[in-house]
Amino acid sequence: MQSTEHSQIRTAAATDILTRHTALVMRQTTEGYELYAEGDPSPVRCESWQQAQRLLRHLGPPEHKINIISSRPSIGTAIEVRRRI
Question: Three-class SS of residue 68?
Fold first, then answer.
């Protein structure tokens, strides 16, 4: 599978989760980043910050929120992400 296909799958999965929940939580792990909703069993995984940033921009939170997320590179830090209305 090509990286474009992986990106489309990640975007579709995150969009699906966000349509069922009001917010996502993004957390950095040792393998990259995870986006998940409380109570949702499977997170959307991104291997790099660039992948996670592209996904966030597609979902539409304010740019300052993306900057906050990128400024907190510690593993285990969780940040709530909401769609821009």
Answer: helix
